[in-house]
Structures are given as structure tokens and as C-alpha cells.
Write a structure and sequence with these properties.
Blueprint: H1 2-18, E1 23-30, H2 31-36, H3 38-50, E2 52-59, H4 61-69, E3 75-78, H5 81-89, E4 93-108, H6 122-131, E5 136-138, H7 144-155, E6 165-167, H8 172-182, E7 186-189, H9 190-196, E8 203-206, E9 213-221, H10 231-241, H11 244-252, H12 255-258, E10 264-265
Parallel strand pairs: 1-2, 1-3, 5-6
Antiparallel strand pairs: 3-9, 4-7, 4-8, 4-9, 4-10
Length: about 270
């Protein structure tokens, strides 16, 4: 309850202050949120209410946390729990809140040369891809997606290497396009895949494994470490995306186009979103 009281207090201050002064908020973000288009519907109501211009730096989660660790962002919106906890433990971030989730999926060509279609065990699916040396395209960066992929390979007791395994060092959208060109498999978050699904000839072949759960969190950059960050606006944004209205926007996003929400709200109980 204390957290919500603080957020309400900050909201009150910002409403009074921002009505006269235009402010800015810099968000270091994972690429999947921007690529999905969620920011285009989630941010404008906040900007209007708080007379605040939001700037999103969309990179992999690792890079986003690095940018924030240098004091070059006010807030991070990312999806790698282990890296997030390290970021906070080292004093760079405060007030982490889970906002939403979706899941990772293994996608690949419709003819499915590895024979993984319908599998729900991601580790076994990856092992079949490796055993048959079917082409697999990896992001090969510091993103949350790549970190999850590497973790899955370790659990599958596979060291991915050889001509069949290609690390491209690209964002998720580019990685999917390369996989499409090469008729290869890759690991993707569901939102980015669905956003691009009409433009590529790749299908979801493995899904439903609890290991593929993909939560997203917001963290304010610590003002005690970086006095120049816009901490009040960062906390206001955290309050917004975890509020009933913000969570409703997230819950509805994607339904009109894809018949399903691209993200599932986590901040408040589903029955309260209306």
C-alpha cells in the first residue's frame, strides 16, 4: 500500500508541474515492445496527461540495461529477470515492477525438417534441431531472447556450433527475416512473430513449455546514483503502466488484428481490468 501511496503523491506533483512545463522521459527498452507497436498506444495517453515527451531507445535487454547503467535513461522496460536483479543489486535501478508477459516460441519453415511441430518441450525440440543439423538463426546479442535461448541449449545439453548454427547479432525482427530467407528455425517472442507473420513463411512449431514464459518489467534508474535522471516522471510512468487503465490497454492490444492479445497484464488481477 505504501508504494501506491507514493505513486499517487508523485502523480499529484507531476499533474501540477507538468501542466506548465513540458518534460521528457527516456526509456531504454527491449526491441520486442517497440516492434509490436505497443508503445504507439500505451505512451500517448501518458504524454498528454503529464505534458511529457517520451523517447524510446529500443535495443536488446542487455544493451538497455547497459545504457541505464551509464545514467543515459530514466527507466528500463525489459525482459530478463536475472539481469534485472543484477542491475538492481548493483545499485543502478529501483522500484522494479512486473507489467506484462507473453511467451517465447520456436518458429521454423512449414515443412519442418527437424520434425518438432507440436512439441511442447523446448529443450527436446532444440536437441532435435541440433541432432539433425537443421539451420538455426540466433540473435547472438545480449538480448533477453538470446539469454533465454542459451539457457535452453544448456538445459538440452547441447553446445550449438557448426555451419547449421548462425549468430547474426541483430534485433528480433531482423533475425526472423534472416530465418525466413534461410528456411531456418529461430526462437522468438510471440508478439514480434505475430507482428511479422504475414510477411514471412515461418510457423510456430513449438510452444506451451513453462520454460518459454516471458515476463516484462519496468525499473526506475536510481536517482541516488544518477541525480540528473527524471525519477519523478519514471515513477509516474511505472504508475501508469501498472494502473487499471494502462493494464487495460495492454490487455486489449493486438486483439483486433490477431484475435489475441500480444501481451498479458501482470500488475493487477484480471478481474479488475475493465
Amino acid at each position: 500500500m505504501r508504494f501506491f501511496s507514493i505513486v499517487l503523491f508523485i502523480f499529484t506533483i507531476c499533474i501540477a508541474g507538468c501542466a506548465q512545463t513540458s518534460e521528457r522521459l527516456i526509456i531504454a527498452s527491449t526491441t520486442s515492445i517497440e516492434a509490436s507497436g505497443l508503445y504507439e498506444v500505451l505512451n500517448p495517453p501518458f504524454e498528454k496527461r503529464f505534458a511529457c515527451q517520451i523517447y524510446v531507445i529500443a535495443v536488446g535487454t542487455g544493451k538497455a540495461l547497459e545504457i541505464a547503467s551509464n545514467g543515459d535513461a530514466d527507466l528500463v522496460f525489459v525482459h530478463n529477470r536475472e539481469a534485472e536483479e543484477k542491475f538492481i543489486k548493483e545499485g543502478y535501478g529501483v522500484n522494479r515492477r512486473e507489467v506484462m508477459c507473453n511467451d517465447f516460441v520456436i518458429i521454423g519453415p512449414p515443412d519442418d525438417p527437424a520434425g518438432i511441430k507440436g512439441m511442447k518441450d523446448a529443450k527436446k525440440a532444440l536437441k532435435k534441431i541440433a541432432d539433425r543439423k537443421c539451420s538455426f538463426v540466433s540473435r547472438g546479442d545480449a538480448s533477453g531472447t538470446y539469454m533465454r535461448e542459451i539457457n535452453l541449449w544448456k538445459k538440452a545439453k547441447v553446445v550449438p556450433k557448426g555451419k547449421w548454427y548462425l549468430e547474426v547479432g541483430q534485433n528480433m525482427a531482423a533475425t526472423i527475416n534472416i530465418a525466413d530467407q534461410k528456411r531456418a528455425y529461430t526462437l522468438s517472442d510471440r508478439a514480434t512473430y505475430l507482428t511479422l507473420s504475414s510477411k514471412v513463411n515461418l510457423e510456430i512449431l513449438c510452444e506451451g513449455d513453462p520454460e518459454l514464459f516471458n515476463p516484462y518489467s519496468v525499473i526506475a534508474v536510481n536517482p541516488a546514483k544518477f541525480p540528473n535522471v527524471n525519477y519523478l516522471m519514471a515513477m509516474s510512468y511505472i504508475g501508469w503502466v501498472t494502473s487499471q487503465k494502462g493494464q487495460k490497454i495492454i490487455a486489449e492490444f493486438g486483439k483486433d488484428k490477431f484475435g489475441q492479445s500480444l501481451f498479458v497484464p501482470l500488475a493487477i488481477p484480471k478481474k479488475l481490468i475493465r
